[in-house]
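Suppose you are handed a protein chain with no further information: no name, no annotation, nothing but its sequence. What can you learn? This example shows the usual starting point.
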Amino acid sequence: MAQAPVLPAGFELPLEPRLPRIGSVDAVALEERAGSLAKRSIKRDAKVFALRLAIRTTDLTTLEGADTPGKVAALCSKAMRPDPTDPSIPSCAAICVYPNLVPTARERLEGSGVHVAAVATGFPSGQYPTSIKVADVRSAVELGADEIDMVIDRGAFLSGRYAKVYDEVVRVKEACGEAHLKVILETGELGTYDNVRRATLLAIAGGADFVKTSTGKISPAATLPIALCMLEAVRDVYFETGRRVGFKAAGGIRQAKQAVQHLVVVHETLGPEWLTPELYRLGASSLLNDILMQLRKEKTGAYQSPDYFTLD
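A reasonable first move is to predict its three-dimensional structure. Written in structure tokens, the prediction is:
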């Protein structure tokens, strides 16, 4: 007979049937497996497939105070046609921007199939009253966002107020309507793998469509062990409930080699079914150019100068 979930103090009873056993994470085993997967040798054809898949799953992101409509419009063009000289290169999955720039992205991407994601809920701190977070999400959806990237209240989580974190995810999910919800844990502030697993399961229980590593504003972010820890929680939820939850790795992934390593970890942990834009995303900005350079090298046998690609 399966044991009842062992929940940390602060979880309310209604959460119990929605979570698999939390347990504790074997840090040594986790890091050794992540390190082993990072060393996997990949043949040329598989590498090219992985690089193209990385583009297809990329949320091309700009989250700076100096962002302008012109910058976002240019980024949208790049998301639709990452390499204008090679029409075989696929489009990115989405553009991720601040809410006030959603209309610009929506207009530029109309009919392209590239989604518009907006950060919300007091990004990146999450230190806003719940009512403002919910209003923030509703506003972003009304402006045209079809994906919402929310941040959890790390202060509430780290002080053991798990029910508050859960309630905010539930309320934000309701405010999203038809828009997909990605819940950002900001793993660099959670301290331990045990906390990362708890926060992942909490976000999933609250209704997250995706769980996401970080805002990109805190280091460390999407390390391979952190990704593996979250992916194993996603796997456990699937095994126990049959529910598929997506995963987004964001923060610190700047080289094509790193993107391929992350794809290997997903493949070996969740299987090929997760290797689609519907269930996997890479949050990135500078990464795309490095992938394009690697693909050009595989095609021509020589590296293209970075000057041939637009700066993000």
